[in-house]
Amino acid sequence: MTVTHRSTAANFAVILEQGGTHLFEITPDEMQELDFLPHGEKGIEMFCKYSMRDTVWARIVNKMAAKGGSCLYERTRAGTYLVTCTVPTPAR
Questions:
Q1: Do 67 and 79 meet the contact criterion of CB atoms below 8 Å apart?
Q2: Is residue 2 part of a domain?
Q3: pTM of the predicted protein model
Q4: Per-residue pLDDT tens for 74-87?
Q5: Which residue segment(s) compose the domain that 42 sits in?
Q6: In a domain? residue 10
């Protein structure tokens, strides 16, 4: 189980507050639901929803769900997933 920030880790807190995108790399065991996704394809985008699982990735997704975020999952040739997370800019 591995979750790695590909963007600056401190940037994630800013994204949660102000909106924007953040890039992670996760191992397949963090998101077993995506086993069907071949590498090199465009990927699949999912709106974040609350999870009862207690994993590092589930806690991150729960934070983004609270902000209306979404994730684009793309499988790499190495078998990991690059995940582009987007949190909308809050209304002012």
A1: no
A2: no
A3: 0.90
A4: 998 888 999 999 99
A5: 24-87
A6: no
